[in-house]
């Protein structure tokens, strides 16, 4: 848990940005600092792994994780992989995707790199202004001959417009894949994310609500797809020394599975804690002019692992000035995902940069605040106080930074 050993900052002169006063927080607060479940349970699992000397190659903890995650999600098949990047690549190969893939530009660059690395061509689409997920109308505008697939991203754990995207995919005979890196535990219409499209891919990276140090999960309700994914993650082996198909090394090891299992057991605790922090932030910041607390989806639930502010031009404090002030106080807020994948190399260097007004606007406005186990209720209130101070003196803050 974070500790605040210093007095609250009462005015701009007391901010560490403009003085020699120590940061408000002794230990930095990160967006995505790892959650860790019961340490004793983790150490017991690790000890068992060492005793068995079965460290990788479809070990018992990997198989247990797959079974328990499939039950948690309510999906037929769950395949553990070394990371979500490899999960996306294997999904694309198994679905025989070749050529162009429609993908939102407003996402982590890793989503797009995963496609490009295996020779696919991303075609960037815009996102919905209030939801930050793939805009189905822009998808329709960009469907063309030679298109191979549609890839949506459940950003901040918010489910995409799944039904609409599925209808488009079915109409045009395109596989629909979802990058669900943020969304383990999120749901739509009473069904957890993991059921949708042909395949969904989750991240168990250290920054996610349930982490396995590193790792990923690929889920599907299709028996044949699941079988092909299992083959692909282990070089295509079907026996001790028989290879049946092309594959790669995407296996999860037992230590990662041990961590992921321990954190899966703690999911209710993690989600409940995120809810408390989210409520404190929301209550403390919702009345600020020009700052919108990005709301939860009207249909469905998220794991609340991300808290997102939308800071408009009419806000007295700009997004970037608030960011600078928070960082000086060891509140390591983030500006995901600027400037958008379409404006980032190498994609910005290939042809004309597409016109994606919503992505460009969100890239310039959004700010994410720390959540997770590191946060106490008091530290969340202290972050609220900092934001409110900067907001109330926004013009002066801007003038000082400009001077």
Map the helices and strands.
Elements: E1 29-30, H1 39-52, H2 60-73, E2 77-81, H3 84-94, E3 100-104, H4 109-117, E4 121-125, H5 136-141, E5 147-153, H6 162-171, E6 176-179, E7 187-188, E8 191-192, E9 199-203, E10 216-220, H7 223-232, H8 254-265, H9 267-285, E11 291-293, E12 307-311, H10 319-328, E13 331-332, H11 357-365, E14 366-369, H12 377-392, H13 394-402
Parallel strand pairs: 1-13, 3-4, 3-5, 5-6, 6-9
Antiparallel strand pairs: 2-10, 7-8, 9-10, 11-12, 12-14
Helix pairs in contact: 1-8, 2-8, 3-4, 9-12
Write structural notes for this entry.
The protein has helices at residues 39-52, 60-73, 84-94, 109-117, 136-141, 162-171, 223-232, 254-265, 267-285, 319-328, 357-365, 377-392, 394-402; strands at residues 29-30, 77-81, 100-104, 121-125, 147-153, 176-179, 187-188, 191-192, 199-203, 216-220, 291-293, 307-311, 331-332, 366-369. It is built from 13 helices and 14 strands. The protein folds into 2 domains: 12-30 and 267-402, Aspartate Aminotransferase, domain 1, CATH 3.90.1150; 39-265, Type I PLP-dependent aspartate aminotransferase-like (Major domain) (Aspartate Aminotransferase, domain 2, 3-Layer(aba) Sandwich). It starts with 28 loop residues before the first strand and ends with a helix. With 403 residues, the chain is an alpha/beta fold. The model has no long low-confidence stretch (mean pLDDT 96).
């Amino acid at each position: 848990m974070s500790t605040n050993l210093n007095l609250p900052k009462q005015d701009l002169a007391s901010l560490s940005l403009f003085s020699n006063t120590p940061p408000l927080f002794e230990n930095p607060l990160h967006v995505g600092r790892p959650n860790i479940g019961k340490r004793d349970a983790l150490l017991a699992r690790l000890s068992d792994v060492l005793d068995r000397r079965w460290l990788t190659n479809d070990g018992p903890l990997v198989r247990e994780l797959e079974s328990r995650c499939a039950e948690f999600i309510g999906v037929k098949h769950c395949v553990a992989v070394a990371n979500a990047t490899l999960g996306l690549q294997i999904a694309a190969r198994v679905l025989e995707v070749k050529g162009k893939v429609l993908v939102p530009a407003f996402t982590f660059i890793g989503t797009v790199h995963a496609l490009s690395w295996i020779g696919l061509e991303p075609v960037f689409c815009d996102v919905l202004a209030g939801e930050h997920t793939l805009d189905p109308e822009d998808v329709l505008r960009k469907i063309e001959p030679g298109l191979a697939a549609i890839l949506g991203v459940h950003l901040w754990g918010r489910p995409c417009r799944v039904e609409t995207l599925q209808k488009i995919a079915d109409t045009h005979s395109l596989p629909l894949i979802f990058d669900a890196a943020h969304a383990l535990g999120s749901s739509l219409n009473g069904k957890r994310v993991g059921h949708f499209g042909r395949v969904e891919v989750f991240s168990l990276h250290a920054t996610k609500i349930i982490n396995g140090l590193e790792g990923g999960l690929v889920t599907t309700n299709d028996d044949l797809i699941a079988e092909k994914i299992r083959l692909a993650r282990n070089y295509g082996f079907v026996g001790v020394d028989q290879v049946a198909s092309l594959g790669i090394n995407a296996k999860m090891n037992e230590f990662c599975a041990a961590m992921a299992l321990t954190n899966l057991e703690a999911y209710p605790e993690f989600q409940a804690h995120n809810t408390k922090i989210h409520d404190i932030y929301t209550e403390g910041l919702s009345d600020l002019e020009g700052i919108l607390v990005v709301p939860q989806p009207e249909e469905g639930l998220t794991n609340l692992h991300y808290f997102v502010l939308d800071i408009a031009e009419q806000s007295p404090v700009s997004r970037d000035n608030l960011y600078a002030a928070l960082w000086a106080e060891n509140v390591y807020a983030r500006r995901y995902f600027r400037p958008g994948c379409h404006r980032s190399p190498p994609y910005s260097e290939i042809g004309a940069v597409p016109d994606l007004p919503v992505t460009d606007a969100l890239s310039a406005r959004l700010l994410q605040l720390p959540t997770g186990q590191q946060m106490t209720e008091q530290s969340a209130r202290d972050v609220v106080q900092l934001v409110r101070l900067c907001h109330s003196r926004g013009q002066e803050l801007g003038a000082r930074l400009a001077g």
